[in-house]
Specification:
Chain A: Keywords: Cell membrane, Membrane, Transmembrane, Transmembrane helix. The complex is a heterodimer. Chain A contains 14 helices and 4 strands. Chain A is mostly helical. A two-stranded antiparallel sheet of chain A has the order 1-2. Chain A has a two-stranded antiparallel sheet with strand order 3-4. In chain A, α6 packs across α7 and α11 packs antiparallel against α12. In chain B, the strands form 3 sheets. Chain B has a two-stranded antiparallel ribbon. In chain B, β5 and β6 form a beta hairpin. Chain B starts with a helix and ends in a 25-residue tail after the last helix. The chains are: A mainly alpha, B mainly alpha.
Chain lengths: 349, 478
């Protein structure tokens, strides 16, 4: 009775839990690391000089490619472990995902092309700015669409092409622009010096205010999206356990503001990361264990045990190595970017 | 032809992947080429190799960037446009694709940054290590993606439960019957693509300069041309043998595809080697056929009276479109033999000592610059169109793999992709052409090792962009 069958059932319960944790980590990694380089792109247009733009771009040029790989891991991981969720979510999010991909194409090539161009340089400055801005906006809309849920029949998406487009998803799209802008600004505070750093501080304060307002608006709206979410947050004893999340968030935002005023270099960025993680935790609490809200759970959509195990073995071995050499790559490019980047001649260009 | 979501998704997939495949086909070989150059620089200390590295790494960076951005599109299209395919294969292919991401993409991305920007920060040896890791990453990436593709061609190691494929034996899934030779054939194809691109671009640089140009100006181009041609001369024959062995596998596991490749309608022994024909799918016969008797059977079965399957053995709705498969294959093989000819010719000219001065040869090599891309693309057409009407051979039809999405949404996205790709890749080609026009720096420009030690100072001279308006380093005079 407690033989293989039982064991198998145990795995069928635990593996999707482990995997949803891993994919949550991958998505969080993505949001943080690509968030700051998309944020640098969002600030890009407002920068006052060519030298500022050069320095901002150089602060992310050696690492942006690795940052974006977490996005592929998010999609790939979903396909690897919850392929039914992947098969339902992707068609449902067709329009915002395709638009996000196109925006990412433009900003991705801007890194290379900008330094190859003279007369056409303005094209790639714009490609970098608008690409970053729109990729962020559509990611935010994907998030909003995800939170508000999908119409499904069994394991098929049954809604329309533009179901994702609602006032709520527009709000989440804008919120993410503010949030990534804040990440980008605090990144610039950490990575640059002089006038540019002072400017980045000012931008960080503005984006912080906008982010806090947006987070509050989303938080107020979310419970009205479904009874399920409302019950989770406001029933006893949940409310006691969950109340710290908004309280800690408020404290972190306050501490961040003070740090920016006090002229700290590094901590504002990590406090922003903390702010993101808290918001993310709040969403996770609202939605768990649904992977296609409000109908399909992680267990409904999980791959076979064999499939999940095979992928898990690889992740267990390779993921620590991935973290190690990614950290090393960051370490190689540590410290502030030089004030004068001669003629845009970065490294190999 | 009806332009429903299925047809439009097929066009969109074919378009985006045909664009995408060009860049990995080039960068897989180029990464190894860079590692070889840097190895030679560390081994000999000859600054020529570092000059060449610094030149080709720029070409690599642009091509790799284009490959990355077009590749992200691919990883999401399985879901957006082919969700029923994802449902059917997810248990099997999901982990395989995920392995590609975690074992290859992160490796490439992390060390690419160090390779491009970090030489002064990490020193020679670590930099060489980074270059090797980028090259290794490209090969690992090809390993997994070709495993997945081969599984769709020759599925193995799985069972069907509730109408979906579930894995039974992972070893047989990954190392499915057509995988080893397909991987060898593809990687060799990528290496040869790079070899002919490098040889052709170098030949072009030599042709642009008069014979009395300073030797140093041309040294890099000569060395590149010579190295690339040695590689091609040795490996084109090996590639032909691998291709032939791969063909035996197709005969065994995908007889209908093979029949389409050969334009063979009836099962027959002593099949001719059809050099040309116009296959007619309605009349189930060939027109204007030119062939060499018995040789077709010999090539395929290694026996003159070997029996080759025919298209008529399966119902019409299980046959692939014949003429695209028939012609793509012949174009690929034709390019392969042209490559062989260039290799043999280069051997003869080396013996005569006129490899760098024979203008007819240099022109031919220049014309062959895109030959590898052509061979890869047409080989890929043969493999993928030949698999139709199946997306998973014998198990899932392409028609049953498409997402439940509106045709309007796919039309809009397809048009957008066409416009965006034309714009972005048009500019990419323009900048690549500019880079190549400028060519490698003359070797005298290298100022020795002390340059490496300066912190934060880029090792290249200040860059003035490629459009030739500003800066002190003018375009070389024509």
């Amino acid at each position: 009775m407690f033989g293989f069958g039982m064991d198998h059932e145990g795995l069928a319960f635990w593996l999707p839990l482990i995997w949803s944790g891993l994919i949550a980590v991958a998505v969080a990694m993505y949001v943080i690391v690509d968030g700051f380089d998309l944020g640098v792109g969002i600030l890009f247009k407002a920068a006052r000089s060519e030298n500022w733009r050069d320095r901002m771009m150089f602060s992310v040029a050696p690492i942006w490619d690795g940052n974006e790989t977490w996005l592929i891991l998010g999609g790939g991981g979903l396909f690897a472990v919850f392929h039914i969720a992947y098969a339902v979510l992707m068609p449902a999010l067709y329009v915002p995902i395709i638009l996000m991909l196109i925006a990412l194409i433009f900003r991705g090539v801007a890194f290379e092309f900008r330094f190859k161009a003279d007369r056409s340089k303005f094209l790639w400055d714009n490609a970098f700015f608008f690409g970053s801005l729109l990729a962020t906006f559509f990611q935010g809309m994907v998030l909003g669409a995800f939170v508000q849920g999908f119409s499904t029949d069994g394991r098929q998406f049954t809604g329309g092409t533009f179901d994702f487009l609602t006032p709520f998803s527009v709000l989440t799209g804008l919120s993410l622009i503010f949030g990534y802008g804040l990440l980008g600004a605090t990144w610039c505070v950490m990575k640059t010096t002089g006038e540019l750093e002072i400017w980045a501080r000012r931008m960080a304060v503005r984006f912080l205010v906008a982010t806090v307002v947006a987070m509050a608006a989303v938080s107020v709206w979310v419970p009205f999206l479904g009874r399920q979410i409302e019950t989770r947050w406001f029933s006893w004893p949940n409310i006691a356990f969950l109340a710290p999340i908004p309280l800690v968030t408020a404290y972190v935002a306050y501490r961040l503001l003070r740090d920016l005023e006090e002229g700290r270099h590094v901590r504002p960025f990590f406090l922003t990361v903390g702010l993101f993680l808290l918001g993310y935790l709040g969403l996770g609490v609202s939605l768990f264990p649904y992977i296609v809200p409000p109908s399909l759970t992680i267990w409904d959509t999980a791959n076979t045990v064999n499939s999940q195990l095979f992928a898990l073995v690889g992740f267990a071995i390779v993921l620590p190595m991935t973290f190690a050499y990614t950290a090393y790559a960051y370490y190689v490019f540590r410290g502030k970017v030089a004030d004068e980047i001669s003629g845009g001649g970065y490294g190999y260009h | 032809m009806e332009f429903d979501a299925l047809m439009l998704s097929r066009i969109q997939f074919a378009f985006t992947i045909a664009f995408h495949i060009i860049f990995p086909a080039f960068t897989i070989g180029l990464a190894s080429w860079l590692a070889a150059l840097e190895f030679n620089w560390l081994r000999t200390g000859n600054p020529l190799y570092r000059t060449l590295f610094r030149f080709w790494v720029k070409v690599f960076a642009v091509s790799f960037g284009l490959g990355v951005v077009s590749g992200i599109v691919m990883s999401y299209q399985f879901g957006t446009n082919w969700s029923r395919f994802s449902e059917f294969t997810g248990n099997v292919l999901g982990p395989v694709i995920a392995y590609e991401v975690i074992t290859a993409f992160f490796l490439e991305a992390a060390f690419l940054g160090i390779m491009l920007f970090g030489w002064e920060r990490v020193g020679d040896r670590l930099h060489f290590f980074a270059t090797c890791m980028v090259a290794l990453g490209t090969l690992i990436s090809a390993f997994w993606i070709l495993s997945a593709n081969s599984w769709m061609q020759t599925p193995d190691g799985f069972a069907i439960e509730n109408g979906k494929a579930v894995p039974v034996d992972w070893f047989r899934v990954v190392f499915n019957p057509s995988f080893p030779l397909r991987y060898a054939h593809m990687v060799m194809g990528c290496y040869l693509t790079t070899a002919f691109a490098v040889a052709g671009m170098s030949a072009w640089m030599l042709l642009r300069h008069p014979h009395d140009a300073p030797a140093a100006k041309l040294a890099g181009s000569r060395r590149s041309l010579s190295m690339a041609l040695w590689f091609a001369t040795i490996f084109v024959p090996i590639q032909i043998v691998i291709g032939d062995l791969h063909g035996l596998g197709v005969l065994k596991y995908q007889p209908t595809k093979l029949a389409a490749v050969e334009g063979n309608w009836d099962r027959m022994a002593n099949m001719p080697l059809r050099l040309f024909a116009i296959p007619d799918e309605v009349a189930e016969t060939n027109h204007y056929e030119i062939g060499i008797p018995k040789i077709g059977s010999w090539v395929l079965t290694h026996a003159f009276d070997g029996v080759v399957p025919g298209l008529k053995e399966v119902p019409r709705d299980e046959r692939p479109p014949v003429w695209p498969v028939f012609f793509s294959f012949r174009i690929m093989v034709g390019i392969g033999f042209a490559m062989l000819g260039i290799g043999l010719w280069s051997l003869y000219l080396r013996w005569k000592g006129t490899l760098f001065s024979n203008r007819l040869f240099l022109t031919a090599a220049m014309i062959m610059t895109p030959s590898g891309f052509g061979a890869v693309l047409f080989g890929w057409f043969t493999a993928e169109i030949g698999r139709q009407p199946w997306v998973v051979y014998g198990h899932l039809r392409t028609a049953d793999a498409v997402s439940p999405i509106a045709a309007g949404a796919v039309t809009a996205s397809l048009l957008t992709f066409v416009v965006v790709y034309a714009f972005v890749f048009g500019f990419g080609s323009y900048y690549l052409a500019k880079l190549l026009r400028r060519g490698p720096d003359p070797v005298e420009d290298i100022r020795g090792d002390d340059l490496d030690k300066k912190p934060k100072r880029p090792f290249s001279v200040p860059d003035e962009g490629l459009e030739g308006r500003s800066g002190h380093r003018a375009q070389p005079a024509e």
